[in-house]
Amino acid sequence: MGRKITFIHAADVHLGAPFRGLRALSEAWADRMLRAIPEAFDRVIEAAIDRAVDFVVIAGDIFDTSRGSYADYVHFAKGCRRLQRAGIPVYFCTGNHDPYTSWQGRMVDLPDNAHMFSADKPSFFLYERGGEPLALLGGRGYYNQTWSHTEDISAGVSREAAEEALGATAPFAVGVLHTGLHLDRLKAPCDPNALYARGVDYWACGHVHMPWQDMPENPHIAFSGVVQGRDIKETGPRGVWHVTLEEGLPNTAEFIPTASVVWERLTVDVSGLESLTAVQEKIMREEFRANGDAHCEEMVTRVTLTGATPLHGLLQRPGVLEDVRAGLNHGYSVFFCDALVDATTQPLDRDALLREGLFPAVFMQAADALHGDELAERALLQDEFLKLGMTLPSSTERSVGELSQGAEHLVLDMLLGSGDAS
């Protein structure tokens, strides 16, 4: 049997990150989210101890700011000491949020098992088990928050450089970087092909907040993502990789969820529903369904209602959506809906409208002709943006068909006066 090591690859903890916006909606949930990131970091430590890994790597942005609070530093040091008692070393680099210059005057002393990679140049550590060298670790952190995107942060990090610096060889080599790789070319980017050529078995990267692997069946470059989603843009399970490197076998990386609260976007089709009570009940069912896949009990959701429904006019009345949202949040305390969005439409008998031959019919015929020519739709939208001195965003360009359909429904709503006047 070949030699083997296992380790936790974490990154982007962001201790001390604020949760903007929730305070105005719910004091209780704002306070809950402030506890979520420290709890997620604790789960990282627990995962390492429970699985008795050889070591932990954290690829930058342990703190959310270069001026982290004393309490955040203490929390990080406490986690390192828990690892020390379990005989697990931790190797970490700094990121663009917590650059090396801010660590030089850190508020607490870290235990001897905590090893920081340098930022002004590459640095290296040797992991041994029972006196046997098993892993060369090389990395480099952010020196300050204004790192030039033209400088390769990975330069000089290689198996050969580690062997020369440490005067030792080992069966495995692990690189640790806070980099945008090719996914974010504004934050210390580097070429994946250059990393492949360095003789390193696994590159543990930070900065990209989504879990990502170059080759899931045999990962050599990976991002673990944030350990705790911080807003509705960071939906779904968040966590770390449990990495296994074994001689003669492909690399493996198992995802371990660590978030104590997950964020989810839900789209709920309310077509055919006849009451707001039915709408609320269906949303709740969808929340439970989503939560079953979330690996986490507590959840913040943003819900968009869709479908052609006779409730459309009622949903547009002032205060109705907020009342439904309040009912949801009162119904189940570990789910919180931060926003309820109405994207429903009024049921339309298009054939009847076309037969009438009035202005709605003329409008629908023009819209149908435009829908059949996506290039014309895109050109029309681009022209409107240019009139405002702006270019058409790529995200908008990709969804031009969906936007066009939405605009048609909006105009027809206005023409037909579908709002509930009662």
What does this structure look like?
The chain is of the alpha/beta class. 36% of the residues lie in helices and 22% in strands. The protein has 14 helices and 15 strands. The protein has helices at residues 22-25, 27-50, 70-85, 100-103, 159-166, 192-196, 276-292, 312-315, 320-331, 350-356, 359-371, 374-387, 394-398, 400-416; strands at residues 4-10, 55-59, 90-93, 114-116, 123-129, 132-140, 172-178, 202-206, 212-213, 221-223, 239-246, 252-257, 261-269, 298-306, 335-342. The protein has a 6-stranded mixed β-sheet with strand order 4-3-2-1-11-12. A 6-stranded mixed β-sheet has the order 5-6-7-8-10-9. Helix 2 packs parallel to helix 3, helix 7 (276-292) packs across helix 9 (320-331) and helix 11 runs antiparallel to helix 14 (400-416).
Distance between the termini: 77 Å
User: Ranges with pLDDT <50 over ≥5 residues?
Assistant: none
Helix content: 25-40%
Indicate the overall shape: elongated
Count the strands? 15
Strand content: 15-25%
Structural class: alpha/beta
Total of DSSP H or I helical runs spanning 4+ residues: 14
Sheet of most strands: 6 strands, mixed
Order of strands, main sheet, comes to 4-3-2-1-11-12
Radius of gyration: 26 Å
* pLDDT averaged over residues: 87
String of helices and strands: EHHEHEHEEEHEHEEEEEEHEHHEHHHHH
Oligomer: single chain
Would you summarize the structure shown here?
The protein has 14 helices and 15 strands. With 422 residues, the chain is an alpha/beta fold.
